[in-house]
Design a protein that fits this description.
There is one protein chain. Helix content is 6%, strand content 48%. The protein contains one helix and ten strands. The longest helix has 7 residues. The two termini are 22 Å apart. The protein has one domain. It is globular, with a radius of gyration of 17 Å. The strands form four sheets. The protein has a four-stranded mixed beta sheet with strand order 1-6-7-10, covered by helices on one side.
Length: 110
């Protein structure tokens, strides 16, 4: 069984057939650097383009370890790491009455 390391600031709850698996935050957070450039305006309100840069805070691969990151980090990696997943927050995610995600049923890769 792989060791799951949560590199987000939030606990991740995975709903499985045999019960919930809660993966607490590890204390490390993987993030993507960003910068912005002004590309125009609408009636004096600036429009900016966000430029995504390098991923920071992602440890080197470890044997039998899978890192859970945000979908933004996963996208920035462009498939370069097979040991990284993000929670699938699409239609299979379980939400409360306010629409907030309380659990996911699967992970995703890009």
């Amino acid at each position: 069984m792989a060791k799951l390391v949560n590199l987000t600031p939030h606990p991740i709850t995975v709903r499985k057939a045999d019960g919930d698996l809660m993966v607490p935050p590890s204390g490390l957070v993987a993030r993507v650097t960003t910068s912005q450039e002004v590309v125009g305006d609408i009636d004096g309100v600036p429009i900016v383009r966000t430029i995504f840069g390098e991923v920071q805070g992602l440890p080197d691969p470890e044997l039998d370890t899978v890192y859970i990151v945000s979908s933004l980090v996963l996208g920035a990696l462009k498939g370069s790491r097979s040991d990284v997943v993000s929670p699938d927050t699409g239609p299979t995610a379980i939400r409360n009455e306010a629409g907030q995600i309380v659990a996911v049923t699967r992970f995703q890769v890009l």
